[in-house]
Write a structure and sequence with these properties.
157 residues; alpha+beta; Aminopeptidase; 39% helix; globular
Length: 157
């Protein structure tokens, strides 16, 4: 039982990208205090910037993760040179479907996409994570990611 990354289908991409935009907008509202409309617009803007051709964006690696032919999640990374990340490859999303969590699939997906990035010439790999996502932070730290910058805020009104 080993995890493999396979090219994502157009239908899977549309479904997962729409769900990701909604979750990202929710995080922007909760973590950054943005209004609903502003958060939704920002989520749409950022995804359009990094994935201008969607699934066919040249610098994007969009993969479904499968174990024994069953899709268990997906991963999205970009090669160095993508908008906003010219100096290194970037992990935009790694997601294990709820019914497949806590089995090591997230770790396996990050390691598999890291191998693919390395084969394509990437030498550094970065990511952003919301501060409240302690589960993801623990995973990334266990994989050798370290903090490069940190943003902090507090309400004053």
């Amino acid at each position: 039982m080993s995890l493999v990354l396979v090219p994502m289908s157009a239908a899977d991409y549309e479904h997962r990208a729409a769900a990701l935009r909604r979750r990202y907008a929710t995080n922007l509202r909760q973590q950054r205090g943005m209004s609903g409309a502003d958060a939704e617009a920002e989520a749409l803007r950022q995804m359009a910037e990094v994935l201008p051709q969607g699934l066919d964006t040249a610098w994007a690696i969009l993969r479904s993760a499968q174990v024994d032919g069953v899709t268990v999640g997906w991963v999205w990374a970009t090669l160095p040179g993508a908008p906003g990340r010219p100096e290194m490859a970037w992990l935009h999303n790694v997601e294990v479907d709820p019914e497949h969590q806590s089995r090591g699939h997230g770790r396996a997906m990050v390691l598999a996409v890291e191998d693919e990035l390395r084969r394509q010439g990437a030498t550094r790999f970065g990511l952003n994570v919301f501060g409240g996502n302690t589960r993801a932070i623990a995973l990334y730290e266990s994989l050798g990611f370290t903090v490069m910058a940190q943003q902090m805020a507090k309400p004053i009104a």
